[in-house]
């Protein structure tokens, strides 16, 4: 490789990295299925005529000098929902990025970098998208996840719930109703960031409903239907194993649960059909052979009489 080209590559790489590191980040919040416009107004020197620019999403370039660049984190479907314009007016380089029909996974950092010979400038936005949490998945268990969780002597049980977090940060809540009186139950323990986990201490015999909520997505007794105790098995499980699988194509996470079951082996010695049977003892086999020989001899004797 030509040393001059090698030095050029190093200088170009340093310029790009420094361009990213000097982002002045602004925060903007929108909602799912809404449109948002990100406007960049970057100062450029007046004595420089040739400038290049690129726009990046989470530090990966997806638009450079008027051309979209394919990448895994900025797929073709997202490009079709994007519109980008760039103009230069004297000392100002103006770039406008419009995102239509926002998805929750469009959230992230969008930066614009202008490179003019040896100088560079940049701006970036942190796009936050409000979206509701995924429905809560709950199950009764008889082994406390927290050894210090005291059930007392009030015939109470443990209800364990999980849900995919939304934005703003979400939680899980339960309602119970008795004689048209509705009570609200907060979890004894609530943990997690991407996946929130909640533990409740409630009565299995009560009319209980649980669901995920946030400050922007509230629920009440009528709308809270992620978990309904009256339509769920009341048999607690001794062991709970949770498995999370993310479906990238559908952009949603599915929570499934699997339980350990004890199996017992049993020996079946019952005849299955007229032509087959299961024999487990040698003595029974000998008896059957003797009976067969006796019957065969009797038949031969009758024939020769």
Automatic annotation (TrEMBL):
Transmembrane stretches, by residue range? Answer: 284-304
Enumerate the SUPFAM superfamilies for this protein.
Answer: Immunoglobulin
Q: Does the record carry Transmembrane as a key word?
A: yes
* Name this polypeptide is given: Uncharacterized protein
Q: Which UniProt keywords apply?
A: Membrane, Signal, Transmembrane, Transmembrane helix
Which InterPro entries does this chain map to? Ig-like_dom_sf (IPR036179), Ig-like_fold (IPR013783)
The species this protein was found in: Strongylocentrotus purpuratus
Signal sequence segment? 1-21
């Amino acid at each position: 490789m030509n040393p001059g080209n090698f030095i050029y590559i190093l200088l170009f790489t340093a310029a790009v990295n420094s361009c990213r590191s000097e982002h002045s980040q602004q925060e903007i919040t929108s909602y799912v299925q809404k449109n948002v416009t990100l406007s960049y107004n970057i100062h450029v020197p007046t004595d420089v005529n040739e400038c290049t620019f690129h726009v990046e999403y989470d530090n990966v370039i997806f638009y450079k000098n008027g051309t979209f660049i394919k990448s895994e984190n900025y797929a073709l479907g997202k490009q079709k929902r994007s519109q980008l314009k760039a103009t230069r007016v004297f000392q100002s380089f103006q770039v406008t990025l419009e995102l239509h029909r926002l998805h929750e996974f469009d959230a992230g950092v969008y930066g614009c970098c202008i490179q003019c010979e040896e100088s560079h400038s940049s701006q970036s936005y942190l796009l936050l998208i409000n979206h509701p949490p995924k429905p809560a998945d709950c199950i009764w268990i008889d082994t406390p996840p927290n050894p210090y969780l005291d059930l007392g002597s009030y015939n109470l049980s443990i209800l364990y719930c999980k849900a995919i977090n939304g934005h703003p940060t979400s939680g899980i809540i339960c309602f119970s109703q008795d004689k048209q009186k509705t009570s609200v139950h907060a979890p004894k323990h609530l943990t997690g960031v991407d996946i929130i986990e909640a533990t409740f201490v409630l009565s299995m015999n009560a009319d209980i409903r649980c669901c995920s909520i946030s400050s922007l997505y509230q629920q009440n007794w009528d709308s809270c239907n992620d978990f309904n105790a009256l339509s769920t098995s009341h048999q607690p499980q001794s062991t709970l194993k949770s498995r999370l699988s993310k479906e990238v194509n559908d952009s949603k996470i599915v929570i499934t649960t699997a339980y350990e079951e004890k199996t017992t082996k049993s020996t079946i010695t019952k005849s299955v059909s007229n032509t087959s049977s299961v024999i487990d003892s040698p003595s029974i086999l000998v008896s059957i052979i003797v009976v067969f020989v006796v019957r065969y001899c009797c038949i031969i004797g009758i024939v020769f009489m």
